[in-house]
Amino acid sequence: MGSGRRYDRNRQPKLNMKKVAGVVLGIAVVIMFIVTLVKLLSDSNNIKQVSNENKTEYFAAFENEKWGVIDSLGNITINPQYDEMITIPDKTIPVFICTYDVNYETLEYKTKAINEKGEEIFLNYEGVEGLINEDESGNIFYEKNVYKVKKDSKFGLIDGKGKEILKCEYDDISTLTGEEGTLLITQNNNIGLADTYGNILIKPEYTDIQKFGNGSKNKYIVKNSDNKYGILLSDSSVEIEIKYDYIKSIDGNNLYAVKEDDMWKVINKDSTIEVSINYDDVSDIKNDYIVVEDNNKYGLINTSGEEVIPVEYDDLKYIFEENYIARQGDKYGIINISNETVVEFKYNNMRYIDGAGVLIADTDEINSDIMNKNFEVKINGVLSDINIEKGYMKIRQDEDYKYYNFRLEEKKNTEILTKNTIFLDKKDGKYGYINNRGEVVVDYIYDDATEQNQYGFASVNKNGLWGSIDGNGNVVLEPKYDLKNNIYIDFIGQWHISADANANYYIK
Q1: 367-380: per-residue pLDDT in tens?
Q2: Which of 87, 355, 393, 454 could form a disulfide with 97 if both were Cys (CB 3.0 to 4.6 A apart)?
Q3: Type and span of the H or E element at 60
Q4: How many beta carbons lie within 10 A of that of residue 364, not counting itself?
Q5: Distance between CA 501 and CA 29 in Å, rounded?
């Protein structure tokens, strides 16, 4: 059975700019057993306040070289007493997975589940673990309210209350990478598909199953024992006959890139050939246009096979309407299907945030130009956070954080963070906090600070050291921690997030 760390995609702590400037922007996520940390000691006090979300969540905690669990108010739920990191697959459910009897040479180990009282649960099983998945950005997360269990050397699924979802009759159960709520089930060396409610979507009859495209949750590429590929829907019906040498996982409005007899073809769902591709590869299909690759260069053809954009770019990705992000050498710009440059090739990287309708164009390792869909640069700064659900971006500009909606209009923090009780404010170079009426709640005494997080706490800095305050502005922890090695600064009560923020555990 396995264990791992949870990266929570909903956490939005403050970027430590001194640290970010000195590291590569991409963060490697490593699942490991041994974590060596500096021993940090402080007094343990229970925190009583109401968090922004008004619900209890749980986090792994590390103190005195031991692992335990705290809740979202900073109170200790499980005293730090375990040698291995406790994993919490669903932070809203008090099911904590403990790893023990670890053999570091063979990587064999045992697991058990305990509840918030420290009592072992799910005793009918030989082991319990969470199901680790990975999103398109490489961030690790766990499937919610579902646990993989082992019995008589076979695997099944239960929910957080111990209810059986799938019987223990499978050789293995794992996640379908990049698709939440869908699981690979292995039986007699064959692979099938189930969901986290226990429904069998595709019977275990295939040697491989992959997700198809982005956002096409009901379509799956399957490979049979003859090494032939096809596409099935979630009800096991055939979308594309299982007869091709390969199928690319690119969603092209019911057009599919398949390989047959060593040649790429674009077909429709009736397997009628739309166009034969006389290039090395196909990388995307959008709006009847096909991005092709030849000799490591990219261009565009239409479904009649006519070349629309010469195969001369080092990269080419569709963004919206008739526009593509292109790369020439080490610089990025934007072209249209007429091969006209609409954004100059001068950026280190570019990406389009579909849910926000904005373009992020990196001017250096930290700063970005932020454009609207008319390619007008409206903002320049460090993109700290983007929240699609709530419709805002947080940008660091001139040593301060500012908020913008997706029309790229600046907004006050009181307009954006509507569930907060205190709001960060700056005066004469110092930070304090006001309420939603603009009244000062915390005097302007701090050198740096963060907004209140979703659990009701804010982080404050004085003389280079960090501490925390609660949602009423009361000091929870006087600044005492030097967190210059932390990429993010975040506190829950007296506990601060680890330097490896992807691991999402807290230290005291």
Answers
A1: 999 999 999 999 99
A2: 87
A3: strand 58-63
A4: 8
A5: 9
Residue pair 329/343 in contact by the 8 Å Cβ criterion: no
Q: Is 141 exposed, middle or buried (0-12, 13-18, 19+ CB in 10 A)?
A: buried
In this prediction, residue 5 has a pLDDT band, given cuts at 50, 70 and 90, of very low
Read off the DSSP letter of residue 392. E
**SS3 call for 346:** strand
Q: What is the CA radius of gyration of the chain?
A: 26
Q: 193 - beta bridge partners?
A: 184, 202
- In the 8-state DSSP scheme, what is residue 416? H
In terms of Cα–Cα distance, which of 393, 382, 381 is closest to 357? 393
Strands (E), 196-306: 200-206, 208-211, 219-223, 229-233, 238-244, 246-247, 255-260, 263-268, 273-277, 281-286, 289-294, 297-302
> Which is it for strands 58-63 and 506-507: parallel, antiparallel or unpaired?
parallel
Contact 121, 115 (CB under 8 A): yes
400 Cα distance to chain centroid: 26
User: What is the number of alpha carbons within 13 Å of residue 445 lying toward its C-beta?
Assistant: 11
163-194: string of b/e by CB count within 10 Å (b at 16+)?
A: eebbebebeebbbbebbeebbbbebeeebbbb
**Looking up tokens 């009423």, which residue turns up?**
472
CB 259 within 8 A of CB 272: no
Look at 444 and 136; give whichever has higher pLDDT.
Answer: 444
For the chain, give the percent of residues with pLDDT over 70.
Answer: 89
CA distance linking residue 268 with residue 469, whole number of Å: 59
213 to each of 65, 218, 252, how far by Cα in Å?
A: 44, 10, 9
Stretch (H or E) spanning 415 = helix 413-416
- Indicate the helix (H) or strand (E) that contains 459: strand 458-462
Pull the structure tokens for residue 4: 């791992």
